[in-house]
Design a protein that fits this description.
By secondary structure, the protein is mainly alpha-helical. The protein is built from three helices and no strands.
Length: 82
């Protein structure tokens, strides 16, 4: 399966920053976007707490679009790999 991901400029910059930071702690060549996203999916599927956080984020983002919720996580410009 192939999936296209639409990221705004801030999300794209954040993801690229994350990839660059991750490259410092992962041996070998810098991970590709596809490798990183596949790893994220595997971790999300493996751990119920992570899956729950993703579902919660989706709920908050959808509610925010409807103007009902302001708790959606937005670009924080922080790397979780530091």
């Amino acid at each position: 399966m192939q999936v296209a991901i639409n990221l705004n400029d801030a999300e794209h910059a954040e993801f690229n920053h994350w990839l660059a930071c991750t490259a410092r702690v992962v041996p070998g060549d810098e991970p590709t976007a596809s490798e990183a996203i596949r790893a994220m999916i595997r971790v999300t599927l493996r751990y119920a707490d992570i899956s729950g956080q993703v579902a919660s984020q989706l709920r908050h983002e959808r509610a925010a679009v409807r103007g009902e919720d302001q708790r959606a996580i937005t670009n924080t410009n922080k790397s979780s790999v530091d």
